[in-house]
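User: Predict CENP-V/GFA domain-containing protein's structure from this.
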Amino acid sequence: MTLLGLAEDDFTLLSGQPKAFHYTASSGKGLDRNFCPACGTRLFTSNAESYLGMVVVSIGSLDNPEGVRLCAGEAPLAWAIPLDVPQFETMPG
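Assistant:
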């Protein structure tokens, strides 16, 4: 799972209402893990006591992950290296 940390003020939820579950890490500090209420996909982590003011987003949950750039001038998703395994557009079944 590829994660992207960003400032809380730079994060905007465009649609839907995720289901949040409060979790206490082994450090004893809390955080909220937010999931899609329909399918259970982990979307983002918020309210992390260890990272105040930050939101950690699962890149795979974005509608347009190609628009994510980690460094100025870097090609979109140039940092993502595909695995040498079969790839599927949808869940095989």
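The chain has a mean pLDDT of 78.
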